[in-house]
Structure formats: structure tokens, C-alpha cells
User: Fold this.
Amino acid sequence: MFTNFDINFMLFGVMPYVALTVFLVGSIARYERDPFTWKSSSSQLLRRKQLIWGSILFHVGIITVFFGHLVGLFTPVWVLDALGVPYWVKAWIAVLVGGIAGIAALIGATMLLHRRLTDPRIRVTSTVPDILIMVLIWLQLAIGLLTITQSLQHMDGSEMVRFMMWSQSVVSWNINAWVTVVDVHWLYKVHIFLGLIITILFPFTRLVHIWSGFAAPFRYLLTRPGFQIVRSRRSRPLEERRRAFDKRQGPSAAETPAE
Assistant:
């Protein structure tokens, strides 16, 4: 039964669908069941200077890397051909932009991880998932930078095209997508594997607050025009407090129309 079993099929043919399913279903379930845990749990009052520099480097770098991967992997090859963009040009852009952004993100992640592990006050407020996800992201960035050493050996863009075909085959439900990356360098395979693990853990960690970053502009600009959301510590409803205020002021105050 398992004579022709291939671990590559499980990792790059089945695991992507498992990861995407857990990512979507887990995110929805967490929002429905535990909406008050949908946050990044900021510790900005502690060691603020290190947090600011680490956070800026990490977020600018990781956002650039994320969208670079998103555009680079899911742009159809025929679009490059139609625009006349040589594969080697795209490969160099990926190496240069991705390398600089990756280094910035890695430095920022190192600062944030060092801050979280070495400051006793922050360490006490940190959960195991908080530390685990930061370690995995740090490893993912480090391995991603190491893959540049392999990319430099294929600056004709051939390896880049293979990963584009794999990514696009996965989202188009091609069951043979895994064959595309079966013989790539092991660094690439570890990089993909860690990416899938982070995707699976996403709904169960503070990473879920990324959804809020994407949704905020649409929520406040489109669905709540002209409103400002204010959280109050008062336990009584507004109308009940208004009536109590009017009662204290007397009948004349309650009946006097506002000017």
C-alpha cells in the first residue's frame, strides 16, 4: 500500500491544503469564540526604545517580504512574457529587494525576541505561543536569507519559475503540484515547510491581529462612516445614565430643549 509513498507529496502536495484550511477555519472560529483575544497584546510601556526600532525594522521588512512573495509567486508567467520582463530581471529584483527587506526584518525580529526573552517583566507577560511564533518567524527569515545563496546560482530565473508554477498549481487545485518542487535544494524545502507551519499556527497566536490590519480601512471607511468607536468603562447603558442625570437636575432641566 505504501510502496510508492513519497514524503514530498505529503509536504508539498497535501500539507498546503491542510495549512490553508486551518488558517481560514481557525481564524473564523477564534473571531467568533474569543473576539477579545484578537489582539497583539502590546507591551509598549516596557523598554519602549528597543520596541520602536525593532518593531519598525521588523514590520517594514516583513511586510515587504510578504507582498514580494505574494506578487512574485502568484503573478502568472504569461504576464511576465506579455510585459517582456526577462526572468533574470525578476530574479535579481527578488534577490536585492527580498535580501534587503529580509535583513531588516531579521534584525528587527532579533531585537524583539531579545527584548521578550531577556526582560523579566516582559518575559512574565509572554505566553509560550508568543515566544514560539517569534522563534519560528526568526528561523523562517534566516533560512529565507540563506536561500539567496542558492538563488544566486540560478539567476536565469529557472528556479523562480518553478516556485511560481508550484504556488499557482496549489491554488488551482492541481494534485500534481508537488512534482514541481520535488528536487529543489533542501533549503527551499525547509523554507516552504516552515511557512506552512506558521500558517497553521496563525489562528492560535497573536498573528491573528494581522487580519485587523487588512480589514480596518474597509471597516472604518466603508461600514462606519462618520462614527468614532469609544470604549467606556461605565457598566450602565447610556440611556439609563441620561435619565439618571436628568432626574438629578430636576424637571426643568429635563424639559428644557437644547439650543
The first helix runs from residue 7 to 33. The two ends are 84 Å apart (CA to CA). The chain has one domain: 7-223.
